[in-house]
């Protein structure tokens, strides 16, 4: 996300060499979704560059490659897993969680495969799982079985909240595109670990996005008061204002938890002028 074109020159300085772009992003937010790793395991040298550009407490939630989760469906992928874990090793403590985003066809009957996969993973990492089959949200028994498997592995269940997005028909090209691609799932709010992770999708209209995240402001505030350390990712269909929205969300949570540290002071997107 730190190379998102609409942010360049607006939120982030432009032009910037590739090995400085993440550093600029990290001056706005203290966490990032590592979504590009879904499409290919990154070069270890690239990951080392990510580590150099961020502080040790910066959070990467890094998605496992689709060859593991979607093509192999967590079976017979030991070689791919080893290659991925070796590639991300330079992140060190920045690897906040390794993220298994499972396909919508991954159903309750597949949970034993997930259980076996999680048991084989090294315990030096934390893991988080995102499921998209509706049975996990609508059938209490299926949800309980999945929660038990995740709890035994110390893994978190990542909710992807699209409730606000689907409340009214799309009004822009970006919203129409997302309308056909994003999952329609009931909202789920229960944290399984001390590191809950939330993905929230709002609308291109800021007012609708802010109204839709009220639930998560309350949840994040409560988790922090309980001693948990949540990570919340704010999305919109075009993500044009996502950086500013993420900072606004953080400010709203901080209003209820004053001890929460502020986000960094952003690097100016353009040099100061005399007039």
Automatic annotation (TrEMBL):
Pfam families cross-referenced by the UniProt entry: DUF72
Top-level division of the source organism's lineage: Bacteria
Signal peptide: none
The name this protein goes by in its record: DUF72 domain-containing protein
Organism phylogeny: Bacteria, Bacillati, Actinomycetota, Actinomycetes, Micromonosporales
């Amino acid at each position: 996300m730190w190379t998102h074109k609409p942010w360049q020159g607006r939120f982030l300085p432009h032009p910037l060499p590739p090995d400085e772009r993440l550093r600029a992003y990290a001056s706005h937010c203290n966490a990032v979704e590592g979504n590009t790793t879904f499409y290919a395991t990154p070069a270890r040298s690239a990951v080392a560059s990510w580590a150099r550009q961020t502080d040790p407490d910066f959070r990467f939630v890094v998605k496992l490659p689709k060859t593991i989760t979607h093509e192999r469906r967590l079976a017979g992928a030991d070689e791919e897993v080893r290659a991925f874990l070796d590639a991300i090793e330079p992140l060190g403590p920045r690897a906040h969680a390794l993220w298994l985003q499972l396909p919508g066809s991954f159903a309750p009957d597949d949970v034993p495969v997930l259980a076996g996969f999680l048991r084989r993973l090294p315990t030096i990492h934390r893991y988080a799982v995102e499921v998209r089959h509706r049975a996990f949200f609508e059938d209490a028994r299926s949800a309980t079985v999945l929660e038990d498997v995740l709890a035994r592995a110390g893994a978190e269940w990542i909710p992807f909240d699209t409730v606000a997005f689907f409340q009214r028909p799309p009004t822009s090209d970006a919203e129409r595109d997302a309308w056909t691609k994003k999952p329609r799932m009931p909202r789920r709010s229960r944290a399984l670990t001390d590191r809950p992770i939330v993905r929230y999708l709002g609308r291109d209209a800021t007012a609708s996005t802010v109204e839709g995240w009220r639930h998560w402001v309350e949840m994040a505030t409560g988790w922090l008061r309980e001693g948990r350390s949540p990570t919340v990712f704010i999305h919109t269909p075009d993500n044009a204002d996502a950086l500013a929205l993420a900072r606004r969300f953080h400010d709203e949570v901080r209003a209820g938890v004053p001890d929460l540290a502020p986000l960094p002071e952003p690097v100016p997107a353009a040099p100061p002028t005399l007039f």
